[in-house]
Amino acid sequence: MAGEELPSTDIITLTRHILAEQIRLGPAATGDLTMLLNAIQVTSKFIATNVRKARLINLVGLAGETNVQGEEQKKLDILSNDIMVNALRASGKTAVLVSEELDDAIVIESRLRGKYCVVFDPLDGSSNIDAGVNIGTIFGVYKVKEGSQGTIDDVLQPGHAMVAAGYTMYGSSANLVLTTGNGVNGYTLDNALGEFILTHPDIKIPPRGKIYSFNEGNSMYFHPPVVKYLESIKFPKEGKAPYSARYIGSMVADVHRTLLYGGIFGYPDDKKSKSGKLRLLYEAFPMAMLTEQAGGIATTGTKRILDIVPTKIHERTPVFLGSKDDVEDLMKFFKEESA
After folding, report:
1. CA-CA distance, 72 to 276, in Å (whole number)?
2. Which of 15, 50, 305, 336 has its CA 20 to 30 A from that of 175?
């Protein structure tokens, strides 16, 4: 029909985008990271398919086991973990794998061993599966240390040593958000093509937002700096408008909204959870890398998350991330407390 806009024929897929990045890097790029990221996007497609039909094929509900965190495992958790482990091992590009669902790290056998380590939460927010709330996969990629054949020490590196990080969110659509240290890009799965298409190029967090995302059901356990900060944005002075509260309870969904709209996401340590609840390696580090690459800040309240040196693979940490101005406002309350 006259006046109808024709669909674009110059589609930028995730595969095309990471290949272009490889070309940009020239001879320094071996193609190994490209192949690894390709394996990760295949796992995301596989998990997305199973999430959509979970209710129909009886993947919802408990599997009768608990993971290393003491959380009851959903059937879809276990399936997603198996999908990730098998695909990453088969890629031939990984040396060590760390999953939220497994007590110990997996060291890949020598015939399939590569030079990268992948840390991941195969299905974050899985307690929300039954309610149809957005859930997701979070991942971070390290390079093995010089001369190493792949050991636990290769993943016990600070977050700033990561070479790539991202997440895939499964909801009304499957969205994959990725950084390789050169900005953040978002892709949406086109089910007809079976490809992730670039839909959110060069994501930048607004310097200040209007939304805060904290589990205020835990307010009675919060430490004073967090309580005072929340009071300051709910009851602002000088006639400013209060912030809106949005808390989904799925880190991927809450961080995704924060990346796009700005504001602050927080899961603090408190009187009940002395070290916080979120895991450092495969939740805090990847999300902190994405946040910083998008122009935001990620902190424990007193120090940069990406500078923490982990001592255990399932270590926990407090997390505050989001718009630069909002996170700096929060950090002021921590400085006042320690002064």
Report:
1. 19
2. 305
Q: What is the pLDDT of residues 248-293, one digit of tens each?
A: 999 999 999 999 999 999 999 999 999 999 999 999 999 999 999 9
CB atoms within 10 A of CB 312: 11
> Residue 47 CB: number of other CB atoms within 10 A?
24
- CA 204 – CA 274 distance, rounded (Å): 32
- Backbone φ and ψ for 186, nearest 5 degrees, come out as -115, 140
Measured distance CA(78)–CA(110) in Å, rounded: 25
Asked if 266 contacts 216 with a C-beta cutoff of 8 angstroms, the reply is no
User: If we measure between CA atoms, which residue out of 258, 329, 260, 255 comes closest to residue 285?
Assistant: 255
Burial of 84: CB neighbours in 10 Å, binned 0-12, 13-18, 19+: buried
Give the model confidence (pLDDT) of 43-77 as tens digits: 999 999 988 877 666 665 566 566 666 655 568 88
What angle do helix axes 224-234 and 324-338 make, rounded to 10 degrees? Answer: 140
In sequence order, the β-bridge partners of residue 98 are 119
Tokens linked to 139: 């991942």
Query: Can you tell me which residue has the tokens 């794998």?
Result: 97
